[in-house]
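Pilot study result, target chain (419 residues):
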Amino acid sequence: MRTWIKLDNAGKIFPSTSSKSRTNLFRLCFSLNEKVDPKLLQETLNEVIKRFKVFKQKLRRGLFWNYFEENKMYPLVVPENAYILEPFDKYSSRGYLFRITYFENKIGLEMFHALTDGYGALQFLKAIVYDYLVLKGYNINDEGKILFDLESTYEEKEDSFQKIYKKEKNTDMTEKKSCHITGTKYQDNYIGVITGSTPKDKFKELLSKYDCSYTQFLCGVINYCASKHDYMIKNIDHPFQVFVPVDLRRKYTSKTLRNFSMIVKTSIKLSKKYTLEDYIKMSKEQLIENLKDENLLPRVAGNVKLEKMFILRIVPLFIKQIAFKIGYNRMSTKANSFCLSNLGEVDLPNDMRKYVTKVTFANGTSNEAPINLGVTNYNGNVYMTLSCSILERDFQREFFRVLSSLGLDITIENNDLEE
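Predicted structure:
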């Protein structure tokens, strides 16, 4: 008998709002110090997926809601495609909502956001790479940092939004319209990727100078770069709004491997010019304010309360999908100028660090947010990956130029079609 589970509160929106230009996928990649063996990687995935039952799912349509049903087939590893973050073909993917890829020394994971967020995806890929290295014959102490030998728990499958939802809490679902970066779209929804890496110790010295975190600092730099290229900005009278997904596990206790993140943002008008220091200061102040419980929890309450409305629950799915598209367009698409996702420190066992040389994270893009930034911190380096669906590189050049001018030694690499 097949088992099924509901989509979590955040995941419910993504099946209805995804398209070829906005796939709602994101990507993690581990680079090794040796070439990947595809057959061994497939053997690894066959075993690891048994442990991560929360990802062993396929999407089904119900009368009132989409739902996940247990997938009895094994997922397949595939060669990496130059066209990253493409929508899944349900036949070639065997119905799975993730894709494990390989290319030379890289193992990648492309994940549909309806299934999990960056934290859940990272735990999954860590386990895959760990087991792959063990099957290669390497002796690795997991140090309790890998979800592998333990049985999955109910807590890993829970919808943690429901746990922190307070019925009596005031709700907040208001959003302002934002301005947007524009440019010449790639054909066939290609996404270009440029990664800049820099030593962590030097970056921390810079953060100490500005008295801010990585995310606060990078938000400031993003706003500054956008202001320097206002000829690329449409509707500049609206604020430039940087969306920042926040892992709620860091604020509210949860072991879930499903979605448990919430967007906070900075909102700054570019029509008035500021210094880089001003943009960093404003970004820091806004992020601190928006992360307070009194500002964050009403947003959670608004999303959960909407899901619990009786009238919405009894409306057929095809009508819900229309409503979701309209609401998402108003609440997210039109409000989002840029997305900055900072996955933070990637903590691997010491024995794994000998074989994993680099960890990167890339966001997808959309027509309204054609450039986004994913950040990881691994093994003494900070990796900043700009994904882009337009041909122009003005913003990326300015971004890394600013970081270099502040004393950071930046090493640049990009994906194949960018050469």
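One observation from the pilot: DSSP finds 13 helices and 17 strands in the chain. A full batch analysis is planned for the follow-on phase.
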